[in-house]
What does this fold into?
Amino acid sequence: MNTWSEIAHIQPLARKTITNSIEKGRLSHAYLLQGERGTGKEAIALLLAKTLFCRERSGVEPCLECHACKRIDSGNHPDVHWIEPDGQSIRKEQIEHLQKEFTYSGLESDKKVYVVKGADTMTVNASNRLLKFLEEPSRKTTAILMTENSSSILPTIRSRCQMIDLKPLNPGAFQQQLIDRDVPRSTAVLLSALTNQLDEAISWSQDEWFAQARRLMIQLVETFSTNPNDVFLFIHQAWMPHFKERQQQEQGLDLLLLAFKDILYYHIGKEDDMVVFAKDDARIENLVMVFSQEKLLDILNKLLDAKRKLKQNVNPTLVMEQLTIQIQG
It folds into this structure.
């Protein structure tokens, strides 16, 4: 997605909001892009930065060929600063470094842009630092914050940003794109529930790590139902050694969410919405006998709570142990 016209196909309201502001010369000093993974947050941030710095743009569309556009694409523009989580969080020192950079004049223009990726991972001290930065905005400074979970961001920060709410993409169209690239239909359905990024989905479909993650997810769900006394052993000997990084751990919980959601869907007659198990899979019938609808709703809530704890930097092994106890309870 390199143009606002392309953005309009997937996020028409976001595109209209931002381009109207560009046309009227009324860009906000701070934007908060809120949406699931793959909904276009990074593409919109890049495009907005290009629109601000491109000297050859046509209307709202940057040329994509000039020195500024190419440097922004490569991440080397001196007046466009990206902040990403350092490990599992964005730290106060990163915001302090940004503030120091912004005391200097722009190297190639009088504008500056900073993009905060994963803004919900900011520590309390980092959030307070950023808040002070937002409270005294420069007319030539544009902040772009990106998050999957705006509720985890300080209300005082949210109130100083223009919220751009990005809508989930159409899963059916995305599945067909994957199938057209020779991804098996069952895998395409699962991947479309995990990401809307085509390149990422294709990469996962060819990745042995993801194939093993998928197998472990099913094994864990079955262990809960058939051998509950072995679950802790499975968590320590199989699950945690495979899901080592934070992003992998979150993906593991996402897979579990989909599996338990499938069991609930089978309970209530929504078999067509299942993404992990096939409708005629004998395993799903056995799982329905073990997990009641009430229990499944509780498990789904506990899984969402576990994801929040991971984002809050709680020890991942402790998170999985607590989750295991809660599911067994």
